[in-house]
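Input for the complex:
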Amino acid sequence: MAKSKLEEINRNIYDIKNKDDYEYKIKKGLTKEIVEEISKQKSDPEWMKELRLKALETYNKLKLPTWGPDISELNMDEIATYVRPKTKLNSSWEDVPEDIKNTFDKLGIPEAEKSSLAGVGAQYDSEVVYHSMKEELLSQGVIYTDMETAVREYPELVKKHFMKCVPVNDHKFVALHGAVWSGGSFVYVPKGVKVDIPLQSYFRLNSPESGQFEHTLIIVDEGASLHFIEGCSAPKYNKVNLHAGCVELYVKKNAYLRYSTIENWSKNMLNLNTKKAIVDEGGQVDWVSGSFGSKISMLYPMSILNGKNAKTEYTGISFAGGGQNLDNGFKVVHNAPNTSSVVNAKSISKNGGKCTYRSLVKITENAKNSKSSVSCESLMLDDFSISDTIPVNDIQTDEVEFSHEAKIGKISDKTIFYLMSRGISEEDAKAMIVRGFAYPISKELPVEYAVEMNNLINLELEGAIG
Amino acid sequence: MNDININETPIRTARNFNINNMKLENIKIPNKFNKFENVEISDIGTKITIDSNVKKTTLKYGLGEFFIDQANSSSNYNANIVVDSKTSKEIEMNFKLNTCNQNLVDNIEITANESTKSTIILKYETTDEVEAYHNAVIKAKAGKDAVLNIIIVNLTNKKSNNFVSIENILEDNSKINYCIVDFGGKNSITNYYSNIMGENADNKLDTIYIGTDNQVFDLNYIGELYGRKSNIDIEVQGALGDHAKKHFKGTIDFKKGCKKASGNENENCILLSDTAKSIALPMLLCSEEDVEGNHSSSAGKIGEKELFYIMSRGFEKKEAMKLMVRAKFNKILKDIKNEDLREQILKEIDKKLD
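Predicted:
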C-alpha cells in the first residue's frame, strides 16, 4: 500500500502543470514572419537570422518521412514555436520565479546539483531559466552556458560548429529546428581537461500547444572528457505538443564523451529529436538512453566515426505503454580504419504500446579492420502490444567483423515459476525480471539516475503485469 | 522500367538507407515471348500430374505488379503440378535457356495434397552466352500433413536477368522446405512470401548465393506466422567477390494469434574482396506475446586463423578459401538428396571461386 502511494506521488512529479503564464508567446503557425519575429525576439546576429530563414525554406521543400509512425496529426498551424517564460536567465535558484523553481525542485534538479553534478542548466518552455557551473571547472576553462549566450559570447566557435554536424537539410524536422530553435546548452571542454562530475541540462515544456526546440552543442577538445546528462519532461495536455530538439556533439582526438538521456515527455508529445556525434581519431562517444515518455518518438542518435581508432557504444531502453509508439534506435557510420561500435538495445511493450528498434550500421570502404557488434532484445508483456526490429546493416568492405543479433519474446514462464516457488508473488517476480532486463542500461547511469529510471519502470509496470 | 520500384519491403525504413526497394536500370525487357520448349522433365510417375492449366494469379507481395502482370498475360511456360503421392516422390524440371529459347516467363503452381510427400526441383540454366531473361511466378500450397520440398537452382550466366516471385500457403501440420541456390544472373532478384496459416505448420528456407564480377542479388524473404505453434527458419549463406553486391531483406512477422510460434533467421555473408558490398535488413515484427523470435546477421572476410590452419596443411590460399566457402554451404547442400544435382552445384561453386 505504502509502495503504491509513493508511486502515485512520483507520477505526479512529472504531471505538475503550472498556469500557462508567459512573458511572450508567438502566434501559432510557421511562416517567414514568425521566424523573423523569433530571430528579432532573440536578438540574433545576422548569420543566425539567415540560417533560420534558409532552414525554413528547406522545411517547406522537404516532405514528411514515408516510414515510421504516422505523424499526420501534427499541424504546425496549431503549434506555438516560441514561448518566453516570465523570467530572465538566472545563476541562483533563489532568483527563479516561485512556480518554476517549485517544478524543478519537485523534479529533484537543485538537489541533484548539490549532491552529484558539476553544473546544471534548466530550460522552461523556450528559454533557459537557470544555468550554473562549479567554480573549479570555470577556472579550467570549461564553458557551460545556454546556447543564446554562446552565440553572443563565443561567435566564432559557435558559427564553426552550429548545424554543421546536423545540417539543416538532414530531414524535415531538423529544418524546422533550424528555423525556430531556442534555448539549449553549449559546452566546451578544453584540451586535456577531465570533467569527472557530470553536467546536466533539464528541459521542461509547460505551455500547451507549443513546441520545444532546444539546441545542444558540445565540443570536447583533444584528450578531454565529459559526462553530460539530459533530462526532459512535460505535463500532459489534450492537444499535441512537439519536441524537435537537436544535439550536436564533437569529440576531438582522444577525447571521451558520455551522453546520457532520461526522457519522460508527457504522452501527448511528439518527440522528433535529432542527435549526432562526430568522433575524431582515438575519440569515443557513449550514448546511454532511457526512453519512457512521448506519444510518438522518432529518435535515432548517430555516431560518425571519422578518425581511426574511434569508438562508440549505445546502450538504450524504450518502454512503450498504451497509446505510445516509440520508434527509436541508433545509427553508426564507420568511416575510418580500426573503428568500433557496440550496440545494446532493449525494449519493453505493454498495454498496447508499440516499440520499434530501427537502426543503421554502415561500414564504409575506408573502415578497414573495423568491428561492430549489435544486440537487441524485445520483451512483450501482453498479447496486444507490438514490438518490431528493423535494423539495416550496410557493409562495404571485407576487412571487418560485423555481427547483429536480436531476440523477441515474453517473460519466461519457467523463470516466473522458479521465483514464485521461492515465495515471491507473480507480480513481484515479473517486475523483478523486467528490472533485470533493464539492468544493463541502468548500471550505465549514475546511481541517482538509475534510481529514477527504476522508479519510472515501476510506474510503467504498475497494473501492467500480474 | 527504370522508374519502377520493385521488391519492396513490407515495412519501409529511412529512404537514405537504400534498402526499401530496388530500381532496375538498363534492363532489356523483351516484348515477345515464343513458346518455351526447352524443358527437360524427369519421370513423374502416376501420382504426380503436370498440365498447363494455371489460373491467373495475384500475389500478396511478389516482385511487383509489372512481373505478375507479365506472368498472367505473356507467360510462355505454364505448369500446374499436383501431388497425390503418399510415398516420397521427386520430379526435376530443367529449363535450358539459349539463343533459341532466350526468354522464359514461367507460371508454376504446385499443390501438395493432404499427407503427400514430394520434392520438386526447378533448375534454370543458360547453355550458351545468350543474354537471357527469366521471370518466374511460383505458387505452392501444402495441404494438411503434407511435406513439400522445393529446390530452385539458378545457374544462368552473368549476362542474364533472373526474376523470381514465390508465394506459399501452409495448412495444419504441413511442411514446406525450400532450398534456393542462387548463383546466376547479372541481376538476380527474388521475392519469397510464406503464409504460415496452419497450426504446427513449418516452413524452412535455406539459401546459398555466390556473387562475382558485378552481380547484384536482391533477396526479399517474408514469412507471416498466423498458425499456433507454427515455425519458420530462414538460413542464408553467401559469398561475394569482386564488385558484387547483395541486398538481403528478411522479415519474420508474428501475427496476432500465432501463440507458441517461433521464427529464426540467420544471415551470413563472406566478403571475398574489399569492393564487394553486403546490405542486410533482418526484420522481426511482432504482434503476439507468446512467441520466440531470433535473428542474427554477420559479415566479414574468412577468418585469418582458420585460413592459416588450412594453408598449414599444404593448401594454397585460393584452395583454402574455396574449402571454407564450401564448408559454409555444405550444411545447406547436404539436404539436397539428388547427388547429380549436388555435384553440379559443387562444381559451380568451384568455378565461381576460381
